[in-house]
Write the structure tokens for this entry.
Amino acid sequence: MRFIFKTQYEQDISLLKHRGQLFWYGLLLAVLIAAPLFLDRFYLGEISFVFIYAIAGLGLMLLTGFTGQVSLGHAAFLAIGAYAHAYMLSKGLAFVVALPTAMILTGIVGAIVAIPALRLVGIYLAIATLAFLIIVEQIIIRWVSVTGGGRGMLVPPVEIFGLAVATPGRFFYLCLALLIVALIFVMNLLRAPSGRAMIAVRDSEIAARSMGINLAKTKATSFGISAALTGLAGALMAHHTGYISPEAFTLTISIQLLLLIVVGGLGSIHGAILGAIFVGFLPQGIALLRDTLPPAIGEVPGLEPGVFGLILILFLLFEPHGIYGQWLKVRQFFSEFPLYRRATNKRQKTYLRTERVR
Amino acid sequence: MTSEILQLLISGISQGCLYGLVALGFVLIYKATEMVNFAQGELMMLGAFVAYTFLDILQWPFYWAVLATIFVMAVFGVVIERVFMRRMIGEPPFAALMLTIGLGFLLRAVAGAIWGSDPRSITTPYGGGIFSIGDAVLGYENIAIVIGTAILCLLLYLFLRYTRVGIAMQAASQNQLAAYYVGIPVKRVFSLVWAISAMIAAVAGILIAPVSLVDPQLGFIGVKAFAAAIVGGFGSLPGAIIGGLIVGVAEQFAGLYLPPGFADTSAYVILLLVLIARPEGLFSTMQKKKV
């Protein structure tokens, strides 16, 4: 069992809590950097996809997991990021200019969406973002001169200062680097006053307001940053598939992102990463499962979403803190062995909470 | 010109009644249990498939098949409540919402596995007939939708207003804890609410099946009905029907008079406008808490 004996105030906000973390995360990073040397092209592509999903998940985690605002419209931010980036690239802008511009643009759209959303709570907000998504989808289909409409558009390859990022290995490094930047950014945000304000808003809007937190500003910031991160993921996703069309950004994708953060573990940064790994590799797992199952079950057309739904239900019923919550319990079990008690992590229920009166 | 408007109005009302019915299911569950059932559209889809099984596979007479469908769906509603939703009492609303989203995915996959993904149609005794008012032409199926919705609303109103159980339900939806203290079995009321909601979904499924083909994707109409429920103010039963009618009629007019693309989005544009003007919907029951 590890006791962290704090001797300085800085330790409270340091990104790494102890030396053990430095070692393990360093090791993980070293393995990831070495991965293109020994991994197959196919797996590199898949892992890059997981990185992209992790960035998008991080964006949604900031909004839903840390600010408590449910969004069913994140596929729209993904789409705006992807299309803005691809359009600017096709007009001859450099990658290093187009990517941040697309991010900022998506962030601004996100902050604008937040303005009417500020007055909405819970389910009203979820459905308003859903409406936003469907309207964006129609705009993409109709605005043919920019988006190519239903035919979609090709995405030019990545080129950074003359270096073509054409191989899966190089793209892998690009995604990894951007994921790390995004991670450090979010971690840094969450230890700063603006991030703490978001968490306060999530836990109780009334309490947050009485401590002098500007609700509107905090929510708009959260929306904007969340949208910008998701836009970044969208731009990378456009490169990953090389071709974008409106079908790639539907409500199902939004729900998949929500699934990602719930399964990973709501309200933790680890959760976004673990959830992305889970969602990224689940289709492969189902494909394997399909071969072993009898054909009557294995060849059902909608099997994949069905399995997604089932897993989501099981997690919500039995492990609402997701994979990361489970990991914390396992770790606690071993570090406190043999003193671990099941009751330590008993779920607390609130019976008096109501959305109707607020 | 007038007949064109009349035609649009009538088909809008019949489409709106369907949205209203599904919205009614949403609102009923939300009012009583404070949970949002995102799988209401899927319940309707399932109702249509069950009706298809009784009518076209087992060849039952129409009215018996309707009763059987409603009964099967009521049992199914209770099962969902007992197996899944009861465990979510006291959990954050977001968790319950996600659970029903997962349930929707699951139900769609199950329906696909049982009935296949090919579109089906069901045979009704009133299918194919046409009724004309002036130049406006109306299928019997559409009239059935309007009449069915009206009867259902009346029954629901009488039930909630005059029966002991109905009044207990109203009490539970106003304040769960207080209802529990005065001896209302709140959990059993919840089961009942789910049963009624599933029965409404079954009726909606039977009514929609002749006008739109039945396949596992039918449940996506629930998303639009959801918008209708919010327009009407989530938590008001008449609001749900009125919201459905507004969305249904607007959709028909947008399809003819506005550029393409507006027909599919009009429901959501109205939703956003209503939410900006009145964040709690048109007929809201929300109160602000004073601190």
Notes: The mean pLDDT of chain A is 86.
